Amino acid sequence: MDYVLLGEQFFNGFQLGIILFMMAAGLTLVFGIMDLVNLAHGTLYMFGAFFAAQISIWTGSFTWAILLALPLSLIAGIILEVTVLRTLYTRDHLDQVLATFGLILFFNELFLLVFGAAGMALPLPAVLSGQVEFLGGIVVPVYRLFMILMGLLLALILYILVSKTRMGMLVRAGASNREMVGALGINIRLLYTGVFGLGAAMAGFAGMIQVPITQAQSGMGEDVLILAFVVIVIGGIGSIRGAFVAAIIIGIIDTMGRSFMDVALLQFLPTNAAEDAGPAISSMLIYLIMAVVLAFRPQGLFPPRGV
């Protein structure tokens, strides 16, 4: 067993988990409080990536790209909620799925027309371009460590916001019993807009910090959206704590499976069979985990009361 490679892939999996948490946190609140199945949440991830990439072209600065793209993602989310999604709250989930899927198609084609198929890059500053070597020879890019630290900081801020503030109290109450919140005289429409804007900003930020690795491309939000839905099912719909724990678990398992499943199968199968079966089984792992959780704990690992 190559323990250096194992350590490096663990860091990669943790970093993927951080990205999934940023996506899943907003998605789980929107679903848990607003009862809105928003397939277009991945589009907000794409918004953040393209906003940051375009601003970096205009300013030549990674820092300004992030600082300016973040409020733009928030504004884009609020506009989307007010103009389109607000009309879907009283509709059934099938209507929500169809409408938000239509938004995916619309924005993918729009971004393809505006920015082209080649994608856009976000160059890193020199301070984030190096590598760090840990004990044992494990080498991790500085930027991946930066992503992990930013994600942990965001998780801490979100925890304080949800646990220690009045808005957080309303969010927790809305996740548990939104009818009661409305009966107490709270402006549900304003709460919905605020929650959706927060989720949009988090998804956009995930896209911003991911784009230096993958580039901004039309349709880039779909794959991460599927993983985010798996995360909120495992963690518990409406639970921030559940989203964080499940995102880290899924990120690490998905990365480790893709890296080492074929090696593990070599102990039982011929080389050709192991190389063929490894990628297939690794891609199924997270869905098998989701199935097990649904079978034994259908409300998720951390129900909404523990937001």
Task: Trace the largest sheet across and list its strands.
Answer: 1-2
Percent of residues in helical segments? over 70%
The H-and-E topology, N to C, reads as HHHHEEHHHHHH
By DSSP (H or I, 4+ residues per run), the number of helices equals 10
Quick overview of this protein structure:
Helices cover 75% and strands 2% of the residues.
Structural overview:
This protein has one domain (3-217). The protein contains ten helices and two strands. It has helices at 3-34, 41-59, 62-83, 93-115, 142-164, 166-183, 188-214, 221-235, 240-265, 271-296; strands at residues 131-133, 139-141. A two-stranded antiparallel ribbon has the order 1-2. Helix 2 packs across helix 8 and helix 8 packs across helix 9. It is globular, with a radius of gyration of 20 Å. The two termini are 39 Å apart. 42% of the residues are buried.
Question: Would you spell out the secondary-structure blueprint of this structure?
Answer:
Elements (H helix, E strand, L loop, with lengths): L2 H32 L6 H19 L2 H22 L9 H23 L15 E3 L5 E3 H23 L1 H18 L4 H27 L6 H15 L4 H26 L5 H26 L11
Antiparallel strand pairs: 1-2
Helix pairs in contact: 1-5, 1-6, 1-7, 1-8, 1-9, 2-3, 2-7, 2-8, 3-7, 5-6, 8-9, 8-10, 9-10
Descriptive key words:
two-stranded antiparallel sheet, 2% strand
